[in-house]
């Protein structure tokens, strides 16, 4: 199966967005175009990552047509193994870097997505829409009823919590990327994968849908919640992905400070219906836009090959930037960070590494290890 180059480009952009959030200057320290870049990266890059993760699941399970029989069982086994590996890797990284690590959450997303692998694009889109509308209210209610003593009791018996900051309760409800609300993005990505993105008619409809979702969600939020509806946590001088607790109503640690009216906001990582719907719209626009550019501009496609290579090894690029940060002592999520030089250096480094590695190897280092871990699935009949 040939690679979807536009999707790889979108995945690379998600990686660079995560770099900007983790390493780049605080939003309050930016001006002009830098402010827009910093704001768009905040929250939207991780959502794009999650949407593309759902897309990737369908590449394994059968993109346009679900795999049946032994092939289908093998695909589900491969996804389950990937989920467990990512959960373990995410927990290991969270021991060092805290709750900002998204990989453990991916493991849970993948496991919950297993029953949905055979559904059509229309059904998946309906499920994604339903989750976007219902789960924020459910998360708000559950968090409002989740007392500190109950959290402590659950965490006391949670082996994951004993190992790192991210326990089962964090993965499902109170963490930075809570499964209860983030499954919307994964299912939306699965629905996109069922479509023929190379078809011009599909591209036009998706572009219109993405624009409508983005403008409608953010516009309505501004109308209902006022001028601060789209306010980013990074505007307070901190990176929203800094090594600290989430600042949304989905985080049980601050639920007592918020009211039901906060569900009308749409700021990055707020986890509200407007945030989810608007972020899905942005993700669709990026994926469709990258696909159109790669399909229609072959010259640009050739020039973008080093960047596309980053998208083919996004797991390596993601994990690698945390490891390099530790090695060189670059802080993340601190309001004192004002320079773009560190993040631009990381982006350039990732491009050079991916371009060189891809000339000699088919998969990135961690991608190759993850693929090897799933090989036992081929013996399932």
Which keywords apply here?
globular, 0% strand, 381 residues, mainly alpha
Can you describe this structure?
The longest helix is centred in the first third of the chain and has 29 residues, at 69-97. The chain is mainly alpha-helical and 381 residues long. Helices cover 67% and strands 0% of the residues.
Question: Short description, anyone?
Answer:
With 381 residues, the chain is mainly alpha-helical. The chain contains 17 helices and no strands.
Furnish the topology, listing elements before pairings.
Blueprint (H helix, E strand, L loop, with lengths): L4 H19 L9 H9 L2 H18 L7 H29 L5 H11 L7 H25 L2 H9 L2 H5 L4 H7 L4 H15 L6 H26 L47 H24 L1 H6 L1 H8 L1 H15 L12 H20 L4 H9 L8
Q: What general form does the structure show?
A: globular
Taking pLDDT < 50 over at least 5 consecutive residues as the criterion, the unreliable ranges are 237-256
Termini separation comes to: 22 Å
Major sheet size, sense and barrel closure = none
Assembly level:
single chain
